[in-house]
Amino acid sequence: MNTEKLLNILRRNARLSNADIATMLGTSEDEVAREIANLEQSGIIMGYSAIINEEKVDENGVTAIIELKITPIKDRGFDDLAHTIMEYEEVDSVFLLSGANDLSVTISGSSLRNVALFVSERLAVLDGVLSTTTHFILRRYKEKHHVFNEDNFDERSMVSP
Amino acid sequence: MDYNKLIPQKIQDIQPSGIRKFFDIAQQVEGVISLSIGEPDFKTPWAARKEAINILEKGKTAYTANSGLMELRRTVCGYLKDFIHTEYNPDNEVIITVGGSEAIDLAVRALIEPGDEVLVPEPSFVCYSPIVAMMGGTAVPIVTHAEDKFRLTASALKEKITDKTKMLVLPYPNNPTGAVMRRADLEAIAEVLRGTNIVVASDEIYAEMTYNGEKHVSIAEMDEMRERTLVISGFSKAYAMTGWRLGYVAGPQPIIKQMLKLHQYCIMSSPTVSQYAAIAAMEKCAEDVRNMVEEYDMRRRLVVKGFNDMGLTCFEPEGAFYVFPCIKSTGMSSAEFCEKLVYDKKVAVVPGSAFGASGEGFVRVSYAYSVAHLTTALTRIREFLEELNK
Predict the structure, then answer these.
(1) Contact at 8 Å (CB) between B39 and B56?
(2) HSE-up (13 A, CA, CB side) for residue B29
(3) Cβ-Cβ contacts under 8 Å, B305 against chain A
(4) Which of B110, B204, B206, B261 is most open to solvent, judged by the fewest CB atoms within 10 Å of its CB?
(5) Closest chain A C-alpha to B178 CA, distance in angstroms
(6) Would the CB atoms of A154 and B41 count as touching at under 8 Å?
(7) Please, are residues A129 and A81 in contact by the beta-carbon 8 Å criterion?
(8) Is residue A9 part of a domain?
(9) Which residues of B touch A51 (CB under 8 A)?
């Protein structure tokens, strides 16, 4: 079982059946099931989720990437504040960054106003947050290898050798 | 104007490609998903594209030497030495052509005259016979069979050789069947050809795409075969460079010298930017090729199993990126099957009959598509068969 290949398949499409994956990798369905279970247990696979074109679900819905500058705390660095922030239900993801900003927080909300309020009332006021910069996502072009494209364009000619 | 009189009968008699004919039908149906494209779905590896941009920025846009950039010819010869263990002199034993197609055209035009016979294993790619016909030669098909893994056998070859036989086309790994020739198979063919005056046009355009851990072998590697073999290949399939139109032919100097004259008068020199990009492709993109081939291999297994599970028996292809399932169990001809599949389920596959009479009863399915695309198409074909059996 080639774990790297298995992970690559799952990264692109976690909904393929174990039988199909087994065929692709030239192994048995049981073997695939066992390997996936191992990967889940060892915390390599953290979960599965769908890539959803949110604009189509709720056209007023917004997603924003908020970059925070924060003050690290002695011995615990940025972890305390990151943990506080990730507990908020609205927060999709929290990353520690290198460079000018420290944390990147992605949040989704039902309107621009809700997101802006969340930032000003919940994030900006936290102890240790020095500044916030909010970037609203205007359009998704590609996410997790999936291109957000209406017509699934294949530039190849239908007529070819 | 009387165009009928104007245009020689020999030209009028050439049939348009059967692949194209079917697509005129498929294109009229809205929302068709295709499993019929014979080119990679990958983009050209970035290193090759970057080199092309770089060359354009530098303004290197002039013709090259007729036979191609010396640096590319050296690169190709180095590649062939590694890949098929056969040495060619970059000075006079290789020509950089406009795709493998031009190399095939040059080979036939340089060697075939009226009365000559050219042996063409079938099913195979569609271009060989028309070019032979244009030269006044006769293409003699040699039927290959699923039972023989669609390989050319020495006995089938021997049966078709006459004193008029001038050339054997050896199109392996094969489009449309995905068949490959192993060393032992090639040795048997070489044994038949040694001591004859028959030239082998070995079309190895899919040589990088072989599976099951077996590397491609060229007939040029067999004893006494280099002197009677033209190795034809290119960048289109291996490096996903179809639109760059670049291939090559390597062979014995006396034949290459004649082919070069034809190339010089009709092409002058192959596209310069493409040639520079091709150097980068061969020198820097081996890993990209490996990744593409691994991806094709996963899809190949998926598609072969898909067809076998739905009852369309499918010979396990070991090269190229096609599978060639048998549809005889449906009672339809390949053309009927493909037409009905397009109309009923909006899936386009190519009738095997487009690749010679012996392709009847089969269809060609390309797996140069994403897994998601392939699984959707396979589901539709399964439904199609279930509805047929109702």
Answers:
(1) no
(2) 19
(3) 23
(4) B261
(5) 14
(6) yes
(7) yes
(8) yes
(9) none
Interface of A with B (CB under 8 A): 5, 9, 12-13, 16, 20, 23-26, 154, 156-161
Reply yes or no on whether the pLDDT at B161 is more than 80: yes
Does residue A61 form part of some domain? yes
Domain B46-285 has CATH 3.40.1160.10: no
Q: CB neighbours (10 Å) of residue A132? A: 18
Range of the domain at A11: 3-41
Please indicate whether, in this complex, the C-beta atoms of A12 and B371 are within 8 angstroms of each other.
yes
Nearest-CB residue to B19 (from A5, A20, A159): A159
Question: Sorting pLDDT into bands at 50, 70 and 90, what band is B213?
Answer: confident
Six-digit token string for B154:
């020495």
Asked if A12's CB is within 8 angstroms of B298's CB, the reply is no
Quote the crossing angle between the two packed helices A3-12 and A18-25, to the nearest 10°.
Answer: 130
- Mean confidence (pLDDT) of chain B: 95
Whether A37 and A87 share a structural domain: no
Asked whether the beta carbons of residue B41 and residue A156 sit closer than 8 angstroms, the reply is yes
Who wins on pLDDT, A103 or A74?
A: A103
| pLDDT higher than threshold 90 for residue A41 | yes
In a domain, A113, yes or no: yes
Task: Over range B22-33, report the average pLDDT.
Answer: 84
Residues B94-114: what's their mean pLDDT? 98
Which helix or strand (DSSP H or E) is residue B297 part of? Answer: helix B286-309
Q: Residue A150: what pLDDT?
A: 65
pLDDT at A76: 79
